[in-house]
Description:
CATH architecture: 3-Layer(aba) Sandwich
Strand content: 25-35%
Strand order of the largest sheet: 1-2-3-6-7-9-8
CATH topology: Aminopeptidase
Shape: globular
Oligomer: single chain
CATH class: Alpha Beta
Helix content: 25-40%
Distance between the termini: 31 Å
Amino acid sequence: MLTPSFVTTTEELDQIARLSTTNLVTNLTAAEKAKEGFVTWPYTPESLRVLHSITPSVLVKDDDLVVGYAIVLTRECAAVYPPLGEAMHYYGAVQYRGKSLLDYHAYFMGQICVHPDYRGKGVFGLLYDFHRQRLFPQYEMLITEISTANPRSLRAHERTGFVIIDTRRDETDEWDLVVWDWR
């Protein structure tokens, strides 16, 4: 049975790190990336433990197996997770409905990933439904960036309710900035 929850154990963090590594853009063939999508940033067990000490992430398990995860990053995570720290400058300059993104009560999706054997089985939806149920109204929106080379991820996010509000290029890739506005 597929069950969403917040991360509670170091074993779950270790499984998230392994799933992240398995689906990392640099570890997949071009065909796998085109068909299945990919994740861009590696998360080690150590980095996940530091982030988890700030705020727990969301996962879906099938019995004891982590079959999907969605890493929650709050503003406080920017001090310990360099990719978010770099992105915060950009987010502060982006306007959404007449205000800077950072003027909203928002948090950030560090990464979402579903185990290949569980894709198409509703895990992605369970992850994001749990986010909205547990983190609204504390937060009014969720912000993330998706590589433009990852159309599978962009389509899944759009089906969930995310909208593209900007596109940018940095030293690693081109990114669609998307928000899921819960207001």
